[in-house]
Amino acid sequence: MSVIYTVKDFSHLLGLTGFSDTMLNNHFTLYQGYVKNVNILMEKLISMTDQLSIEASELERRFGWEFDGMRMHELYFENMTKEKSEMGGELKEKIEKAYGSYEQWLDCFKAKGMMRGIGWVVLFEDPANGELFTTWVREHEQGLPATGKILLVMDCWEHAYMTDYGLKKADYINSFVNVIDWKTVEKRLSTK
Question: What pLDDT, on a 0 to 100 scale, did the predictor assign at position 191?
Fold first, then answer.
């Protein structure tokens, strides 16, 4: 099997406040599975002679799931830190413009995280006009706004919090907010 994508090492997050090493290691293992499956699917799809076959179609459908699962987890882990992090001026201005205040945005972000079901809460930037918006993305490959630039990702699938928080999803969300790496989030802003 040829390896096109390699697993990124997020072990520097071990010891993260509010996230047990057991939960993080389980989550890293899940992420590694996405990377492995992306490579397997790419190899199978490239080698298929009948690209119109039912098998090729089903592999294509599966590929979106695995690829977006890989990328969403990478963005999620990358936007967390053990260091104290504060939001920079440009991002804060954009959030205040879109939501009135950081506090109103945070209330919106947390409320979306409390939605029932599996998914992600994502702060997006619209590259067409630079506006920010926060939305729920159901499954990795469903609900991603076309051309939306992902700035901040919070995993709201049960594996992200059940080990440490059980059904106390709000406690997980509060812990996540406390470890956001705002420098990384701000670097994701488009530069115009």
Answer: 64
What is the tens place of the pLDDT at every residue in 135-160?
999 987 788 888 899 999 999 999 99
For the chain, what are the domain ranges?
20-78, 89-187
Tally of CB atoms within 10 A around 89: 8
Question: 3-class DSSP state for residue 164?
Answer: helix
Distances, alpha carbon 130 to alpha carbons 20, 50, 156, 170, in Å: 36, 42, 26, 30
| Average pLDDT, integer, range 77-82 | 98
Provide the edge-to-edge strand list for the sheet that holds 149-155: 132-137, 120-125, 149-155
- pLDDT band for 133, please (50, 70, 90 cuts): very high
Structure tokens at 132: 């920010």
pLDDT of residue 165: 98
Query: For residue 27, what are its two tokens?
Result: 């989550």
| Superfamily designation of domain 89-187 | Iron/manganese superoxide dismutase, C-terminal domain (3.55.40.20)
What's at 149, amino acid-wise? Answer: K
> Which structure tokens are listed for 135?
């939305």
End-to-end CA distance of the chain: 41
Asked if 157 and 92 count as a contact pair (C-beta separation under 8 A), the reply is no
Any idea what the Cα angle at residue 182 is, between residues 179 and 185, rounded to 5°?
A: 115
